[in-house]
Amino acid sequence: MLRTPMLGRNHAKTSGFSILAKQVWGALRSHRLRPERLCSQVPCAQRRNNALHPLWKGPASKPGGSRQSPINIRWRDSVYDPGLPPLRVSYDAAACRYAWNTGYLFQVEFDDAIEGAGISGGPLENHYRLKQFHFHWGAVNEWGSEHTVEDRVYPAELHLVHWNAVKYPNYKEAVMGENGLAVIGVFLKLGSHHEALQTLVDVLPEIKHKVSCTY
Ligand SMILES: [Zn+2]
Q1: Which of 55, 68, 27 shows the shortest CA–CA distance to 160?
Q2: Which of 3, 49, 162, 197 is the most exposed, having the fewest neighbouring CB atoms within 10 Å of its CB?
Q3: Where do the coiled-coil regions begin and end (predicted)?
């Protein structure tokens, strides 16, 4: 289902929505993610009326800290690292298992028993296997991404979640551990019809209700 995701600022193909096409940014977050805050699963429509993102309101959240998620990416704060090797991405569509409704979003799960599929290189010390991907979107086109760039919100955001298969025996333990997860975030903009994305959209009517699932 997912063959060549878009990374960095290069254009490539993802799968999913017909309305979404162009990638703007790919972020890699691999270090010390707090598993309980892997990403926001608060319905996106609720966020619009909040001056501060709901994830920044909890007792463990301190706006301005160095490990915040979501984050507002600012070009002037970005530092180019010439020493970083290329990120290697290899996905296997045959490993796609099912899509389900988490109650907040829909998630596509992969068989992660296979060593080959996943990501490595870049800032990663180990190989990380693809576990699942999901999208964040909003009630209106203009507002859906979890993260922002220069305070700009994008219509949607794709998260590809990988776990450290070298350091941990399974995803569950990786979620709780240091350097356990690596997530690629892809901002999506409105665009022309996207056939590969449409195949994913087509299964959504089958998982309209919470915890419903389709294989
Ligand atoms: Zn997410």
Answers
A1: 27
A2: 49
A3: none
Q: Does any domain span residue 1?
A: no
Q: How far is CA 96 from the centre of its chain?
A: 16
Q: Is the pLDDT of residue 187 over 70?
A: yes
Q: Identify the CATH number of the domain in which residue 79 sits.
A: 3.10.200.10
Please give the average per-residue pLDDT across 21-47, as a whole number: 38
Q: Which residues contact 75 (CB under 8 A, 6 or more apart)?
A: 149, 150
Q: Please give the Cα distance from 130 to 116 (Å, whole number).
A: 10
Distance 185 CA to ligand 1 centre (A): 8
- Averaged confidence pLDDT in the chain: 76
Question: Phi and psi dihedrals of 213, rounded to 5?
Answer: -145, 145
- Local confidence band at 211 (pLDDT 50, 70, 90 cut-offs): confident
Alpha carbon of 104 to ligand 1 centroid (Å): 10
* Domain count for the chain: 1
CA of 40 to the centre of ligand 1 (A): 6
Q: Quick one: how far is CA 3 from the chain centroid?
A: 15
State which residues form the domain around 183.
Answer: 20-214
